[in-house]
Amino acid sequence: YVYSRPPPWSHTLPTIFVITPTYTRPVQKAELTRLANTFLHVQNLHWVVVEDSPRRTNLVSNLLEKAGLNFTHLNVETPKSLKVGLSWIPSHTPRGTLQRNLGLHWLRDSFSNTPPPEGVVYFADDDNTYSLELFEEMRYTRRVSVWPVAFVGGLRYESPKVSPAGKVVGWKTVFDPNRPFAIDMAGFAISIKLILEKPQASFKLEGVKGGYQETSLLKDLVTMDGLEPKAANCTKVLVWHTRTERPTLVNEGKRGFTDPRVEV
Amino acid sequence: NEELWVQSVLEMPKRRDILAIVLIVLPWTLLITVWHQSTIAPLLAVHKDDGGDSRRDLAAGLDSKEYCLSDRDIVEVVRTEYVYTRPPPWSDTLPTIHVITPTYSRPVQKAELTRLANTLLHVPNLHWILVEDSQRRTPLITRLLRDTGLNYTHLNVETPRNYKLRGDMRDPRIPRGTMQRNLALRWLRETFNKNNSQPGIVYFADDDNTYSLELFEEMRSTRKVSVWPVAFVGGLRYESPKVNAAGKVYGWKTVFDPHRPFAIDMAGFAVNLRLILQRSQAYFKLRGVKGGYQESSLLRELVTLNDLEPKAANCTKV
């Protein structure tokens, strides 16, 4: 028996396209490393990494080459005018929007002339934590599937409300449960077929209220009663919205103490 | 004549019985053979079936629709298909890496251990020693460990609380994780015989760090104590041992107290199991340890600066 990483591609399993926006900061390589270590267990996974940068960086290029995953490496820089914090308007472009949209665009482009594979699209931020079970739950999504997410909305977890008949009837959240889709980015997956059927569906860039980013995409794709609840009818937590602490680099000083040629 | 007749009467039912038995048994034999063949094909393809449906589906790198193979096909399938298993099959030649992880209950515990396990599941011959800071081994950890499929040992020891302060405050004079790491060292010494040398490496891996897969292969060749750079410690992008042209460690590239005997983070070194067993009194000091000196408290009992083996391209890679 030979141990291979990732597992061999299968011609029968639906493909999982994972779209991950990422940006340069000290912990980027660490985050992408441990994310890759998780993805390397998942069969038929195609990782679409979209850098928020003017050019694809060597750090990410090399990491993707070395990992051995099936990948696509894109980049698009968020214009400074749209970046968080610089706008005085209360609504702003949440981070990663342009990058996720580019990922969707690439997908639509790639399968404009060829029949698309069976599969799903999942938005995975580079600092969250994903169980391996999650990917098997989302793999057989017909339209849009949903499940609970830990550590969002100021709760241990937020979850869709599922009726005994197995239909989503609402949202178990404290923060604005009346949103059309009161769900975190990490809490849903969309079938490729649906993405290609509705080529106009994208994340809204500007004028999006906090917490409404997911809605801005999903409203053009599906209605609440068309959602497929996963993770044992949304009773299990398979993904955690973890956040990574920023490392203190005070001892680098003005000139920098460590060798900048050593990649971190 | 009567005797003959009696004898033939006795014999005839025998032959009829035999025929009846054959006619009844034969279809069952055929049925069992066919059933056996159809189930054995996917079973042979799955390497280590530790249960868990989702993993079984993944473990068969083959098309799960392929049943009904002949004997010859089954043998060929096993020989030519690469089979993905998790963790990788145990090897008789690789030294075992014993990873000691102290852990404690808090909201993110399960998330941290999940992603750590996802990394460890790629490393061959890895033995995870998880030590809970708790009164009892918790069901959460018990279940998590079992579901990963990793080779593991589950221990626990509770760091005494500081009774003077109210609330869940552990004794601040004991650095976090110390008692747990020491318990694991004791377990190793009680479990392994220092004369019966099963090659092994001991590594202390906290549950919130990030580890590359390359790191584990770097530490596998440790003869005494090996060292390498660690990112995001000491207020720097990374701290690193200083290595001279001859490949020997002669100092520490740190801002914070570079004159410590071992100015290195817990994640920056590994120790050969033989050394742990030989120096059976070497433990992390529990109390009276200055900040940043925990690692030194153990390492000074095991090795001198001169004996350190620099890894990661002579400590130039993080």
UniProtKB/TrEMBL annotation, chain A:
The record marks 158, 251 as: Interaction with galactose moiety of substrate glycoprotein. InterPro entries: Glyco_trans_43 (IPR005027), Nucleotide-diphossugar_trans (IPR029044). UDP-alpha-D-glucuronate binds at residues 21-23, 52, 95, 100, 125-127, 241-243. It is found in: Endomembrane system; Golgi apparatus membrane. The active site is at 214 (proton donor/acceptor). It is a single-pass type II membrane protein. Its EC number is 2.4.1.135. The keyword Manganese applies. One of its GO terms (biological process) is chondroitin sulfate proteoglycan biosynthetic process. Keywords: Glycoprotein, Golgi apparatus, Manganese, Membrane, Metal-binding, Signal-anchor, Transferase, Transmembrane, Transmembrane helix. It holds the Pfam family Glyco_transf_43. GO terms for molecular function: galactosylgalactosylxylosylprotein 3-beta-glucuronosyltransferase activity; metal ion binding. Pathway: Protein modification; protein glycosylation. One of its GO terms (cellular component) is Golgi membrane. Belongs to the glycosyltransferase 43 family. This is Galactosylgalactosylxylosylprotein 3-beta-glucuronosyltransferase. It comes from Piaya cayana.
From TrEMBL, chain B:
Gene3D superfamilies: Spore Coat Polysaccharide Biosynthesis Protein SpsA, Chain A. Keywords: Glycoprotein, Golgi apparatus, Manganese, Membrane, Metal-binding, Phosphoprotein, Secreted, Signal-anchor, Transferase, Transmembrane, Transmembrane helix. The gene is B3gat1_1. The record marks 239 as: Interaction with galactose moiety of substrate glycoprotein. Its EC number is 2.4.1.135. It is found in: Golgi apparatus membrane; Secreted. This is Galactosylgalactosylxylosylprotein 3-beta-glucuronosyltransferase. Mn(2+) binds at residue 208. Involved in the biosynthesis of L2/HNK-1 carbohydrate epitope on glycoproteins. Can also play a role in glycosaminoglycan biosynthesis. Substrates include asialo-orosomucoid (ASOR), asialo-fetuin, and asialo-neural cell adhesion molecule. Requires sphingomyelin for activity: stearoyl-sphingomyelin was the most effective, followed by palmitoyl-sphingomyelin and lignoceroyl-sphingomyelin. Activity was demonstrated only for sphingomyelin with a saturated fatty acid and not for that with an unsaturated fatty acid, regardless of the length of the acyl group.
